[in-house]
Predict the 3D structure of the following.
Amino acid sequence: MNLSTAAALFPLDISISPNSDGLPGIQQLRDVVGAAMTIGLILAVLALILSAIVWALGANSSNPHLAGRGKVGVLVALGAAIVCGASVTLVNFFWNVGQQV
């Protein structure tokens, strides 16, 4: 069998779309992911508060290393909140980009 014959055997029009009720437990999986997002956001708030405290302690005790670590912690906590909050939108955006390929 040559290559052109093998290529002719494959279907050319493949159409597969996500199926939200094809497997059992999809709704429970969505609930688990939503709970994980909530936990991530709560931990981001906790990290933001702790980092702000470290930043304030470092600034008030003339310890630039401690203040710098607090600043980095604030940025990391805010970045984590952005990623948690935008994760669904980012995945949908890249899903739509992938559908246009």
Q: What stands out?
A: DSSP finds three helices and no strands in the chain. The chain has a mean pLDDT of 90. The radius of gyration is 24 Å. The helical segments are 3-9, 26-60, 64-99.
